[in-house]
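Open question from group meeting: does this chain pack into something compact, or does most of it stay loose? Before anyone orders reagents, we agreed to write out a predicted structure and look at it together. Recording both the input and the output here so the notebook holds the full record.
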Amino acid sequence: MPHLILDYSANMEERTDIAALCDCIRLAAIETGVFPKAGIRVRALKADHVSIADGNLENGYIDISVRLREGRDQETREKATQHIFAAAETFLKSAMNTYPIALSMEMRNIDTSLSPKSNSIRNFMKED
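Structure tokens returned:
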């Protein structure tokens, strides 16, 4: 765990490399030292139909949602949130200086009693 989900307006695909942003966020999550590498999942979901702010079709957004298992204290989660958000902001700086873009992020805990897991990825991971 965690799952990092990018929800973004379709016009963002013209403004930035979404796949590279996913990789940037994955690496930032690893850099925090908070999450096990084998548990990190990053995915991006495009919203084809949006209505943002004043309705200007140039408006775009990326919302990063982080879902993780319980057990990390508030300070640890805050530091991880700040690190991942800063990486996304840096990655998107040029696009945000050129286009109207809203960037947001939320980290929240998952109730472990309601979220069973099974994972064989570690069995196949290559050593660094």
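Observations to bring back to the group:
The mean pLDDT is 94.
Residues 3-111 form a domain with the Macrophage Migration Inhibitory Factor fold (CATH 3.30.429.10).
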